[in-house]
Write a structure and sequence with these properties.
alpha/beta; TIM Barrel; 8-stranded parallel β-barrel; 8 helices
């Protein structure tokens, strides 16, 4: 994946969620307008096998009466879920069409059995993509489905043996919560041919510290705060 001319890759976390509903087409469009090198999003799969972009596994149903799980809904129903007036839950295909030729798209795999359907959409797209997940087994399955696709593993606790985790999941990108990152972790990932992408970085001071440590990517809610 390319690195920003400024240094670390600047990644819009779920687009530009401080200005538009997260994981929405307007949020991704705004991140692109603000100069993001990449966008990050969350992918689930509907009951009829359509990958959709939403953080949580549940959404408010179109009737507004109760929450419904994405895995139990058809794409036709999900497409009617309003995030704001005139803004609806998008499909992965819609987001990739928007991003193609403009930014890299980092797709977080969420839910059981999402890899095959999600990767099929990625492979048909002209967008430059990679996948990552807290579920390292899902990343390993993605490696078997599409070995050519860049893959990453997420951490919300300090990795005990990051080199082993990378090897077992067949991943090169390591996504730790930004507070966990130290020089030792960065060096271990780099020594094993990988990159470190920090999330969620929302302060210039934190971004500058991470760049000094040698991180390769910064994922934040406002890319204007990322050097």
């Amino acid at each position: 994946m390319p690195t920003s001319k400024r240094g670390a890759e600047r990644i819009g976390h779920r687009g530009a969620p401080r200005e538009f509903p997260e994981n929405s087409l307007p949020a991704f469009q705004r991140a692109i307008e603000l100069g993001a090198d990449a966008i990050e999003l969350d992918a689930h799969v509907t009951a009829d096998g359509v990958p959709v972009v939403h953080h949580d596994p549940d959404v408010r149903s179109p009737t507004g009466r109760a929450n419904s799980s994405l895995v139990s809904m058809t794409w036709q129903d999900v497409a009617r879920v309003a995030l704001a007036p005139g803004v609806f839950v998008p499909s992965l295909e819609q987001v990739l069409t928007l991003a193609a030729g403009k930014v890299t798209v980092y797709v977080e795999l969420k839910g059981r059995g999402v890899e095959e359907r999600t990767i099929a959409v990625v492979q048909k797209s002209a967008a430059r993509c990679a996948v990552h997940s807290f579920d390292h087994d899902a990343v390993a399955r993605a490696a078997r489905i599409a070995p050519e696709l860049r893959r990453g593993i997420l951490f919300d606790a300090y990795p005990v043996d990051v080199a082993r985790s990378m090897r077992v999941a067949s991943a090169l990108d390591v996504w730790p919560q930004w507070e966990l990152i130290d020089r030792v972790l960065v060096e271990r990932v780099h020594d094993n041919g990988g990159r470190v992408i920090a999330w969620t970085v929302n302060a210039m001071s934190a971004a500058e510290r991470l760049i000094a440590l040698g991180v390769d990517g910064l994922c934040g809610d406002d890319v204007r705060l990322l050097p």
